[in-house]
Amino acid sequence: MNESGYLILAISIIVALAIIFVVSFVFYVRTPAPKGCENIKISEENCSSCDKKECRFYKEKETE
After folding, report:
1. What percent helix, strand, coil does the chain show, rounded to 5?
2. Count of structural domains within the chain
3. What single DSSP character describes residue 38?
4. Which of 2, 20, 22, 35 is found 20 to 30 A from 47 (Cα to Cα)?
C-alpha cells in the first residue's frame, strides 16, 4: 500500500472512532435512570465518612 492508502486508512479509522464516540454518548445521555434512582439526594448517613473528591455529591456537600 502506498502513502495515500495509509493516509486514507488512518483518516477513516479516526472518523469511525469519532462516530462511535458520538453515537455512544447520545445513547448514554438518552438512557433513563434506573427505577428508584431518579431523585437521588445526599445522604448524611452515607456521606459523613466519605472523603472522595470524585463523588458527584462532594461539591454539593461543600456548597451547603
Report:
1. 60, 0, 40
2. 1
3. T
4. 35
> Residue 21: which domain range?
1-34
pTM beyond 0.85: no
41 is a domain residue: no
Answer yes or no: is 62 within a domain: no
In a domain, 8, yes or no: yes
**CA distances (Å), origin 23, targets 9, 15, 29:** 21, 12, 10
pLDDT value of residue 57: 60
pLDDT over 80 at 21, yes or no: yes
The set of cell numbers assigned to 30 is: 438518552
Distances (CA, A) of 57 to 9, 14, 33, 37: 44, 35, 17, 14
* pLDDT confidence of residue 4: 93
